[in-house]
Amino acid sequence: MSARAYALSDGNSFYCSCERVFDARLARVPVIVLSNNDGCAIARTAEAKALGIGMGAPWFKIRALCKAQGVRVYSSNYALYGDMSARVNAMYRDFSPRIEVYSIDESFLDISDVRERDRATLARDMRETVRAWTGIPTCVGIGPTKTLAKLANHVAKKNPDLGGVCDLTDPVAYDHWMARIPPEDIWGVGPASARKLGAFGCESAADVRDLDTRLVRKAMTVVGERLVQELRGVACLDLEEVAATRKGCAVTRSFSDRVEDLTTMKQAVAAHATRLGEKLRREGLGTDHVTVFFHTSEHDRAQPQRSVSTVVILPEASNDSLVLVKAALHGVQKTWRGGFRYSKAGVVTTDLLPLHASQRAMPGLGQIDREQGAALMAALDACNRRFGRGAVVPAAAGFASSRGWSTKFEMRSPRYTTRLEEIPVVAA
């Protein structure tokens, strides 16, 4: 097996756990967190799962159940969840100098320098430290490859008797669990891959590991071959300590109410284009085109349906929100047709590139004044950092208070850690 060792630490029901940190009354009661516009359940505590609330369950279908069973329901509070994730990862860096933040609630750590007999002890110490300093419960999986670490994390979650830690660098544990984990529980194995592995007669992760790599490569490409090697303990995936350069960016939102007029649609798309510019500037990237789309909902079966998108080309790459807004509004104007109840709109771009290295347009052919625009955008971003996102926006995007179409967060908890006016107060 590989001399390397990876740990994957994962926050348990992370969004719900963040809510519990600041409200002791939520301990041991069922809690769920809903998606944007309070559409469906995207996080559930063990108590909520025990009531039969499934991942993605629509809110309108489980509303009565939640009321009858005393389930505490929250709208998504991404400001809180993102900040708590940063705090948890700060703890991880005390245990390893090499970390890959894989998602908001998962991180890989390189613990290759830790002696084999000490790895599980380190993982338990890390769990206790994170719980004590942030309040977030975690499970840790350890393996000689990232795939096995992910598998070990799955085992630790599903088997409470392990105390939240599973170490698959231990040969005994490795042999035991590989024979008991079904192929569909392996990281990266989706329904299509599971069917192919089933056709090969695979009933466990051990069966997948023992497949002929040539056969797997032919049926599942190099990705499948790499999966088999990782299950054998041959590390094919290293940590991505520096996030890969973004190739595309999208800002899309479902409307809280259906949009039927051009003015409202323009405001929504302008707001999305403004946010797109903020994201691109944060990473020093630019784009020379934007795709604008909007469509009706397939659930409005009694209403006429329409889905439309258009690409608007810029004379040169830019991340100036005013430039992007102008382009996006042109796309709306070009494709708008009334008489429909639109449910969602967005602005998308691909093939991003570093703005400083992008080709300039010829003078007189729409060249953008980047220097002046950059100064204005820097001032806009500074104001929004100081006074909160949306404090200063292009007029076309409108202020949040006037956006009847914007996302609903009717059951959102306070943003305890990022808004001074929402900080918890202890009564005297």
Task: Please give a structural write-up.
Its EC number is 2.7.7.7. Belongs to the DNA polymerase type-Y family. With 428 residues, the protein is α+β, with helices and mostly antiparallel strands. The protein has three domains: 1-162 and 409-428, Alpha-Beta Plaits (2-Layer Sandwich); 179-244, DNA polymerase, domain 1 (Orthogonal Bundle), CATH 1.10.150; 248-397, Dna Ligase, domain 1, CATH 3.30.1490. 38% of the residues lie in helices and 19% in strands. It is built from 13 helices and 13 strands. It has a five-stranded mixed sheet with strand order 5-6-1-7-8. Strands 9, 10, 11, 12 and 13 form a five-stranded antiparallel sheet that branches. It has a three-stranded mixed sheet with strand order 3-2-4. A hairpin with a 4-residue loop joins strand 5 and strand 6 (106-110). Helix 4 packs across helix 5 and helix 11 runs antiparallel to helix 12. It is globular. The mean pLDDT is 92.
Strand composition percent? 15-25%
- Tally the structural domains: 3
CATH superfamily of the largest domain: Reverse transcriptase/Diguanylate cyclase domain
**With helices defined by DSSP (H or I, 4 residues minimum), what is the helix count?**
13
CATH structural class of the largest domain = Alpha Beta
Mean pLDDT: 92
Q: Uncertain spans, ≥5 residues at pLDDT below 50?
A: none
Main beta sheet strand tally, sense and closure: 5 strands, mixed
Count of DSSP strands: 13
Radius of gyration: 25 Å
What structural class do the secondary elements suggest? Answer: alpha+beta
Instruction: Kindly report the CATH topology of the largest domain.
Output: Alpha-Beta Plaits
InterPro entries: DNA/RNA_pol_sf, DNA_pol_Y-fam_little_finger, DNA_polymerase-Y, DUF4113, Rev_trsase/Diguanyl_cyclase, UmuC
Pfam families: DUF4113, IMS, IMS_C
Catalytic activity: DNA(n) + a 2'-deoxyribonucleoside 5'-triphosphate = DNA(n+1) + diphosphate
Organism: Methylobacterium pseudosasicola
